Amino acid sequence: MILAIPSDKESLDSAICVSFGRAPFYCLFNTEEQQNSFLVNSAAESPGGAGIKAAQLLVDNKADLLITFRCGENAAKVLEPAGVKLFKALNLSVADNISAHQQNKLEPLQEVHAGFHHGH
Length: 120
Known about the structure:
22% strand
């Protein structure tokens, strides 16, 4: 299983980025191999549609599960049909959230917000 987590830095010690679509990086953690890698979020600087582009990036990289504080409905419309499960992040580091997931301590992300549409 591949866990995806938006992060502020390319480090397991990084804080989780509060913005899913505009996170600078995503940590991809392979639970079978216990290995992680970091993706640069090419959508972070997009003038619009960052969440959709970021969601597609994670789908393209075979993420099975996203751990995040919040997710917009447009991003969810990309993630959910692809089978990506959404879980609510804890206000801890990337590594601590990976550990919490492996101990079944994370709750499913229930609320999907309308998104932050700039200029509307």
